User: Fold this.
Amino acid sequence: MGVLTRYRTTTAAGVIAVFVLVLVFGSPPYGDWARDNANGTGALDLFLSVLTWPSWDFSADLPVRDVVAVMLRAILVVAFTALFLAALTAARSGSALAQLFIGWAAVVFAGAAAGLVTGIIQSDTSALAVFQLISSGATYGIFAGWIVGLATLRAPARR
Assistant:
């Protein structure tokens, strides 16, 4: 048993997985590629587009408040995933299926919570805009959360 395996907990495995998802698929180059290439009506196009939601783009054409909200959204998805994974893992039943759903649900909740917080910060703070961000965040969690769930499958609840 290696050092990495010994220190790999459910929360750590999930945070690493969601961090990589946000880092890679939230990056400006991937976002540009998805806008140019994943704009069809197929399921794969939808999946590739949804993965860009927690972007961390420094667009100069947005108000500073919106740039901060976009950057904070990416950070909050990772932070809230850690929070929800830690809370949900404490109550897990031990089965692999339960662990998959815990990892998945943590990202759904994290995306919705990040959408709520950043929706309040944005310059267009209407109730509709906030609800749309919450919905987009939850949709991101539904599409990307299974990856985090798979990453947490074999990780122990505690060290």
About this structure: The chain has one domain: 3-151.
